[in-house]
């Protein structure tokens, strides 16, 4: 049986939502940067002088320059394949919640409902209401241990390989 | 109008007007005599002739009938089929899918389920005033019935046959058609060695294929079995794919999940990104069209392994741009609502959403589960990639026309089966995008033809996957009640043990349970259906 898939922070690698302009340029002082080409997302790989702790490093990135909307660590699965958070999270409940339950859940966890899944009645996508103050790995732990939650994960962008030769 | 096949699935028939004009000029005298007959079969053969069928076949059919029946005259109790028509005439139809002529007149072929009591059989037969004309000499439960009063003939027989077919006691009921047959139908193009390897290319080993011909003796697929190609788009305007394309209730041909649902192009699953060099997979949307062709192309130049199944085009990639896992997962969920089989010729990182979507697909198809096939990867014997490595997915590796593992094919316990692909003598001949100058073959005769509609060097585990998925679709065409693990069991248990290194359970990390064999798999599926 396949092991449950994990999302583990990659040390020293972050995705930052920052509009084009000087702030983006200032980010390069932290290390290598790469524009993802959508939603104003930029990848930042911290240099050798980066703090050891994941959370400390995240705070350093957030405070590197003004204009950063949010930052989150890049996540990896157990094959070390990187996945870039989009800022949203998905929660699948054990059963479809009522509107009241859904609203309470969002309020309790500092989330804003983005949309319900088109195909799965018990699955919803949320955005942190205060994204700058939200450390994604902590939020995921909180959601995964919440009552009535079957599963919760960070929404991510990934590279896919079409396997023609 | 329609009839139902053995799986009680509909075969649509379009009625056509019986011609009343004289035979065309140029027909020989003897043919004239036959064609001018007013008997039902002569009219039928004339219909075949005049509506575009083969004249020799039509004439031969009428002649042989006359020799057999008219030569000696009807026996007591028999109806003279060559007698002049009284009342309603025979009714010709064209099968909507194949365009073949089917002509119905007086008889219905009826097969009862075993152990149906004689009294029940009699009740069903006499319900419409029919009597038994003869019992099938090879199948005791099968009879030919007709209305001795001649009230129920022609098109009306379809309704009566369908009425009978809907009862639990009847396995099938169909008018005893006079039909047009095409004898060229099994002509697999020589470049498609993966379906039927004649050993025509120097060094190729004859017979190293998936044995599609054997499978096609039983089925070439059912239109009710849909294969979803979730990829960078499918060229649904391609001449050998366009008739195969599944459409939703609003006639939309699929979706593009790379684009938001409210994007004007969201319901257009065609390839959209073309960049130089145009034959480069990473930079272009040319991959899904080739995959779709391997699964279910249908044309004289190129066949998929399941040419009667339909293709569902689901686009998730725009060339090599990063894709949102949430959208990829929803594409799988969307496909699982209508498809029986999903083919994924790609790999990526492991994500909980895609994992959940595969599990969601396992609850579709009335709880039997949509069968998901995925490519194991092309990283030269590296571990099997995701989602192929996921335990609910059938991981497909690649073999060659030398019956060897393709040098690039990934290995591990998650390999379920292998299917023929490139890196032997020849690559895979399949469909290419129709956009001029784009695709794996930009219009080079040596790469699949000057028209650029086909390419001859597709490959990788990308090609092996839709081939295996198409065979899975053939299995479900024969036996739609199989669950997704049943389909895996059929494919694995009937695979050919090529190469070496199989353990006591018959598994090899290189070849999985062996090279998938369409013929054996379809026979096994049919046998399981009979066993119930």
Q: In what range is the share of β-strand residues of chain B? A: 15-25%
Q: End-to-end distance of chain B, in Å?
A: 30 Å
Shape, per Cα inertia axes of chain A:
globular
The SS-based structural class of chain A is alpha+beta
CA-atom Rg of chain B in angstroms: 26 Å
Main sheet attributes: strand count, strand direction, barrel closure of chain B: 7 strands, parallel
- Helix proportion range of chain A: 10-25%
- Note poorly predicted spans of chain B: 27-40, 49-85
Oligomer: heterodimer
Question: What gyration radius of chain A follows from the Cα positions, in whole Å?
Answer: 17 Å
Give me the secondary-structure category of chain B.
alpha/beta
Mean pLDDT of chain A: 94
Strand order of the largest sheet of chain B: 11-12-10-14-16-17-18
Number of helices of chain B: 12
Could you spell the SSE succession of chain A in H and E letters? EHEEHEEHEEHEE
Helix content of chain B: 25-40%
Low-confidence stretches of chain A: none
Tally of strands of chain A = 9
- Largest inter-chain interface? A-B, 39 and 53 residues
Provide the fold topology.
The complex is a heterodimer of chains A (165) and B (532).
Chain A: E1 8-17, H1 22-27, E2 31-35, E3 41-46, H2 54-62, E4 70-76, E5 82-93, H3 99-108, E6 111-116, E7 123-128, H4 136-144, E8 149-158, E9 160-162
Antiparallel strand pairs in A: 1-3, 1-4, 2-3, 4-5, 5-7, 5-8, 6-7
Chain B: E1 2-4, E2 10-15, H1 29-36, H2 40-50, H3 55-70, E3 91-95, E4 101-104, E5 107-112, H4 118-126, E6 131-135, E7 142-146, H5 156-165, E8 170-175, E9 178-179, H6 212-216, E10 226-231, E11 254-256, H7 287-296, E12 310-315, E13 323-324, H8 325-338, E14 341-344, E15 346-348, H9 352-361, E16 371-375, E17 394-399, E18 415-420, E19 428-431, E20 454-458, H10 461-478, H11 484-493, H12 518-531
Parallel strand pairs in B: 10-12, 10-14, 11-12, 14-16, 16-17, 17-18
Antiparallel strand pairs in B: 1-2, 2-3, 3-4, 4-9, 5-7, 5-8, 6-7, 19-20
Helix pairs in contact in B: 2-3, 7-10, 8-9, 10-11, 10-12, 11-12
């Amino acid at each position: 049986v396949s092991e449950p898939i994990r999302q583990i922070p990659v040390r020293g690698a972050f995705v930052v939502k920052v509009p084009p302009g000087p702030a983006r340029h200032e980010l390069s002082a932290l290390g290598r940067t790469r524009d993802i080409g959508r939603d104003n997302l930029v990848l930042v790989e911290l240099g050798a002088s980066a703090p050891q702790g994941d959370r400390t490093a995240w705070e350093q990135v957030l405070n590197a320059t003004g204009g950063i909307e949010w930052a989150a660590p890049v996540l990896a699965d157990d094959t070390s394949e990187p996945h870039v958070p989009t800022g949203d999270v998905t929660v699948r409940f054990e059963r479809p919640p009522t509107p009241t339950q859904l609203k309470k859940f969002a309020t309790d966890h500092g989330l804003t409902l983005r949309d319900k899944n088109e195909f799965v009645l018990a699955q919803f996508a949320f955005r942190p209401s205060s994204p700058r103050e939200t450390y994604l790995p902590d939020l995921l732990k909180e959601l995964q241990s919440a009552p009535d939650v079957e599963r919760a994960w960070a929404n991510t962008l990934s590279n896919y390989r079409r396997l023609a030769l | 109008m329609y009839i139902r096949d053995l799986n009680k699935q509909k075969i649509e028939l379009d009625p056509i007007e019986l011609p009343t004009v004289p035979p065309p000029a140029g027909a020989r005298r003897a043919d004239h005599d036959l064609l001018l007959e007013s008997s039902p079969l002569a009219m039928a053969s004339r219909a075949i002739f005049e509506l575009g069928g083969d004249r020799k076949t039509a004439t031969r059919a009428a002649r042989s009938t006359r020799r057999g029946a008219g030569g000696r005259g009807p026996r007591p109790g028999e109806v003279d089929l060559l007698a002049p028509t009284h009342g309603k005439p025979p009714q010709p139809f064209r099968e909507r899918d194949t365009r073949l002529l089917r002509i119905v007149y007086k008889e219905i072929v009826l097969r009862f389920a075993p152990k149906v009591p004689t009294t029940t059989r009699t009740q069903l037969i006499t319900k419409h005033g029919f009597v038994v004309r003869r019992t099938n000499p090879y199948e005791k439960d099968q009879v030919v019935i007709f209305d001795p009063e001649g009230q129920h003939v022609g098109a009306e027989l379809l309704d009566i046959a369908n009425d009978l077919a809907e009862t639990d006691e009847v396995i099938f009921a169909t008018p005893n058609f006079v039909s047009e047959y095409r004898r060229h139908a099994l002509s697999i193009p020589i470049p498609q060695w993966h379906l039927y390897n004649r050993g025509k290319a120097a060094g190729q080993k004859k017979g190293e294929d998936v044995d599609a011909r054997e499978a096609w003796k039983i089925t070439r697929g059912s239109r009710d079995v849909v294969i979803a190609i979730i990829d960078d788009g499918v060229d649904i305007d391609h001449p050998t794919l366009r008739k195969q394309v599944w459409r939703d209730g609003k006639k939309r041909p699929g979706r593009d999940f790379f684009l938001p649902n409210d994007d004007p192009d969201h319901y257009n699953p065609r390839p959209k990104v073309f960049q130089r060099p145009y034959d480069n997979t990473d930079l272009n949307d040319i991959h899904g069209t080739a995959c779709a062709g391997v699964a279910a192309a249908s044309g004289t130049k190129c066949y998929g392994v399941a040419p009667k199944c339909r293709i569902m085009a689901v686009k998730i990639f725009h060339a090599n741009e990063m894709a949102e896992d949430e959208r990829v997962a929803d594409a799988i969920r969307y496909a699982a609502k209508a498809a029986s089989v999903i083919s994924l010729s790609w790999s990526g990182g492991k994500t909980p959403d895609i994992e959940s979507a595969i599990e969601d697909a396992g609850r579709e198809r009335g709880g039997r589960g949509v069968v998901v096939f995925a490519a194991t990867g092309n990283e030269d014997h590296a571990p099997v990639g995701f989602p192929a490595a996921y335990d609910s997915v059938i991981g497909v590796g690649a073999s060659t026309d030398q019956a060897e593992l393709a040098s690039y094919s990934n290995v591990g316990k998650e390999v379920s089966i292998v299917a023929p692909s490139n890196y032997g003598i020849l690559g895979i001949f399949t469909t290419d995008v129709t956009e001029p100058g784009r695709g794996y073959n930009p219009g080079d005769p040596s790469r699949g033809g000057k028209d650029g509609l086909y390419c001859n060097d597709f490959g990788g585990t990308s090609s092996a996957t839709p081939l295996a998925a198409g065979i899975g679709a053939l299995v479900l065409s024969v036996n739609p009640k199989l669950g997704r693990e049943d389909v895996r069991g059929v494919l694995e248990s009937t695979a050919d043990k090529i190469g070496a290194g199989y353990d006591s359970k018959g598994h090899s990390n290189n070849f999985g349970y062996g090279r998938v064999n369409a013929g054996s798999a379809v026979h096994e599926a049919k046998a399981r259906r009979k066993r119930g």
